Amino acid sequence: MPREDKNIVKEPDLSYGGLYSYADYLEWNLEETLELIKGKVFKKTAAPNRLHQRLSLHIASEFYQFLKGKTCKVYEAPFDVRLPHKSLRNEDIHTVVQPDICVICDPEKLDVAGCLGAPDLIVEILSPGNNQKELQIKYALYEESGVKEYWIVYPVEQSLIILLLVNGKYKPSRSFTVGDVVGSSCVEGFQMNLSELFQE
Questions:
Q1: Mean pLDDT, range 90-97, rounded to an integer
Q2: DSSP class of residue 175?
Q3: How far apart are CA 41 and CA 95, in angstroms?
Q4: What is the pTM of this model?
Q5: What is the spatial distance between Cα 52 and Cα 29, in angstroms, rounded to a whole number?
Q6: pLDDT tens readout for residues 118-153
Q7: CB 136: neighbour CB atoms within 10 A?
Q8: How much is the pLDDT for 119?
Q9: CB 98, CB 138: distance < 8 Å
Q10: How far out from the chain centre does Cα 126 lie?
């Protein structure tokens, strides 16, 4: 199906060699979720497993309870985060991701479509099918986009690493695990007990 006919594009042509934009993304009618990273399409694999969903719900709930009445807000996937490079026009935005969890403290970045600009904090919970993407592509993407704090959760290993943006580069924490209580630099006062998170 020709990509040029904007009125009938129902899904991306993965053989197309050019770059897709957020404007294209809005035209697609797909059941599965996908992300755009620098104009390239990344289709998500099978639905997250039960453990992934339980951890996501637990972490999002902890942030939600803590942030009640505060400026910062937490959102859980599916939730579009658009990361513009030069222009805020839909046609010029080539990166749209759906982090498992994100915290946004600037209300100006929130609109009906989701978040426009870098969240303050992003949490990604690894699954067997997405480790390479999260650890390589998204690491670099979040770093250059200015995401101040990036949590990577390893469900099987029952561990968590926090990456803090320092002078434009991520500085990793030690590996936190059961018995540790972690906090956030972006969400002052927030703490989460990893023994409770990984109790199963």
A1: 94
A2: P
A3: 9
A4: 0.89
A5: 26
A6: 999 999 999 876 667 667 899 999 999 999 999 999
A7: 10
A8: 98
A9: no
A10: 12
| Contacts of 182 by beta carbon, 8 Å cutoff, 6+ apart | 160, 162, 176, 191, 192, 194
Tokens coding 78: 């599916």
Structure tokens at 68: 């009640």
Please name the residue that has the structure tokens 């600009």: 117
Contacts 24+ apart (CB under 8 A), 32-40: 33/77, 33/78, 33/98, 35/96, 35/97, 35/98, 36/94, 36/95, 36/96, 36/97, 37/95, 37/97, 37/137, 37/138, 37/141, 38/94, 38/95, 38/141, 39/94, 39/95
Tokens matching residue 103:
């915290």
In the numeric block, the tokens 């009445």 are attached to 69
State the residue for tokens 């996501």: 56
Task: For residue range 37-63, list pLDDT tens digits in order.
Answer: 999 988 776 667 899 999 999 999 999
